[in-house]
Amino acid sequence: MTTDRHALFAAHAYLPQGWRRDVLLEWNDAGVLTAVVPDAPASAGIARASGPVMPGMPNLHSHAFQRAMAGLTEYRAQASDNFWSWRDLMYRFAARITPERLEAIARWLYVEMLKAGYTSVCEFHYVHHAPNGSRYANEAELGQRVVDAASQAGIGMTMLPVLYQYSGFDMRAPRPDQRRFINTPESLLDLLSTLRRARPEHGALTYGVAPHSLRAVSAASLRTLLEGLDADLPGAPIHVHIAEQTGEVEECLAATGARPVAWLLDHFDVGARWCLVHATHVDEAETAALAASGAVAGLCLTTEANLGDGVFPAQRYLEANGRIGVGSDSHVAVDWRAELRLLEYGQRLVRRQRNVLACPTRPQVAERLFDAALAGGAQASGRAVGALAPGCRADWLVLDAEHPSLYGREPDDWLAGVVFCEHGGSPIAEVHTGGRRVVHGGRHEDEARAYEAYCEALAHLLA
Ligand code: ZN
Description:
Layout: E1 7-15, E2 18-27, E3 33-37, E4 47-48, E5 53-55, E6 57-62, H1 83-94, H2 99-116, E7 118-125, H3 141-153, E8 156-163, H4 185-198, E9 205-207, E10 210-211, H5 219-232, E11 238-241, H6 246-256, H7 260-267, E12 274-277, H8 284-293, E13 296-299, H9 301-306, H10 314-319, E14 323-326, H11 336-351, H12 365-381, E15 396-399, H13 411-420, E16 428-433, E17 436-440, E18 443-444, H14 447-462
Parallel strand pairs: 1-4, 6-7, 7-8, 8-9, 8-10, 11-12, 12-13, 13-14
Antiparallel strand pairs: 1-2, 2-3, 5-15, 15-16, 16-17, 17-18
Helix pairs in contact: 2-3, 2-14, 4-5, 12-13
The chain binds zinc ion.
Zinc ion binds near residues 61, 63, 277 and 329.
């Protein structure tokens, strides 16, 4: 029954050891890789990949609804536009989201992610309630819509319901335009249980939590949240926005006497299950301590550039063996290639050097950053993803080696072509998740219907 085997033969595949020839991939009905064998003999009856095969990228940070406002805030509305003026606009947008519109936006976004080669996503989900702040009849309605959108599109998901409790470090009462976000630790844990009962974990879905930021929770409420999480889901991922803005660093210093990353590391047992999103503003001691903690720094370069956040000290952090992953966050761009490119380019522009994030043992910048983002993204998602290896999810991309960005290049230069070159269209021809092909010839199988629903949602939102 060789024709029914879940198997693929790739003339070239990117394994944890680098590019290998004649690789046989096998996976089971659950969509998990069972064998990855380089230097295998080609055998009749096994499908051959149309081009080089490489792991799909985990996206470690997403706010799905924000996709609908990408490009709508790129004009000057006051003398000095910044993150906080952008946030006011984003809140007005969030107020108009309905369950149906959220599902349509998320589904289209996840189609875009898959086309770009993101095969899983950590959804930092904070719009929970009806526009007036009351609970939906199903308290987990909006989270469930996002989970459903992911399974319709065929992307893996780590759903992270967000605890948003206060509007500032002094346990300031929430603003009226934050009422859709607000929970106590207890009500957020209830919501998570409700969601897990309705949509239990499976091979492509897992759960964690996200305390929104140190300005939106107190030490006590964070402790309660994490104790409750450990009772239900020991070891589950914890994501937090940590130091995106100098304003929040200053507020944290005023309220606690410490900078946000330093405060968190001092007060909580931050380790491998943690993802510190936007660890942008860290001093030297924080950079070293964060790297030593084993947590992942969640970098969202295109959003951080778009919002004028600042530049993360990536060179020093990687030298200290710090772990990183990338996310598309506000979705002004949905492309891990652009995130990795900007990660390196930010350093080049600041330091006036080239190949800054290479190191003596990893001279190829793109390969070093790709490997780091795969490993860190997988760790942050709490799922076995990000590698072509037995036991990992059967998520991979097939490149078009004839694409102008790759043509005539040796395998050692393919990742540089993928990450640094932009010559029209994407060199990612196919995307497979759980062993199933969802993108072919650059098109997602559900693209037309998902886009139609997205356009309809957008028409209502912008009316
Ligand atoms: Zn975010």
